[in-house]
Amino acid sequence: MSSEQKVAIITGASQGIGAALVKAYRDRDYRVVAVARSIGPSQDPGVVAVAGDVADRETADRVIAEAVRRFGRIDSLVNNAGIFIAKPFTDYTEADYAAVLGVNLTGFFRITQRAIAEMEKRGGGHVVQITTSLVDHANSAVPSVLASLTKGGLSAATRSLAIEYARRGIRVNAVSPGIIKSPMHPVETHAALGALHPVGHMGEMSDIVDAVMYLEQAPFVTGEILHVDGGQSAGH
Known about the structure:
It comes from Vineibacter terrae. By secondary structure, the protein is α/β, with parallel strands linked by helices.
């Protein structure tokens, strides 16, 4: 494989949107470092699987080291790993708080800081966060303060990083999904969850993948929060 092939790091890569993103980047001839708590070795020589919790400093160090050691560069980072716990605000526990902040914010901070440091060496790169439309459009049927606290922080950080690094060739964007059909949503819940969207149905994982791929190929776009949410952020 040529050292000129681009390299993407994708967190939360073992299933669902993360696994679909790994395939999409490989289909575009990227080499990929796939990160998740439980992920087995890949049979694809263009994919390095790193098992670990993104909230742990050691995992972030290992991910960046593996990308550089195996592939020699880092071009893109997709911060897809996330935890969503829907509870009334007063029912959240300290364990809930620690888990959500650990993955959604601490994990983002550690791996993004290290990835951008490598991107600076090459004079360019792209970082994408996966957030949630609940940040912009709270819904009384879906109590989600911890999601808003953390994913809202990612949206703000996306804009801040985009401006900080705009003249250094590093773009930073986010995709803000509605509710997407994935293994975390049993089929019997799809009708009710679909009704939460103005378009009347849930999104597909391909909708999110296509949004990330658009941003990947859009050199004049940075600081963008791209809503892929069936109209939720516009209202009801």
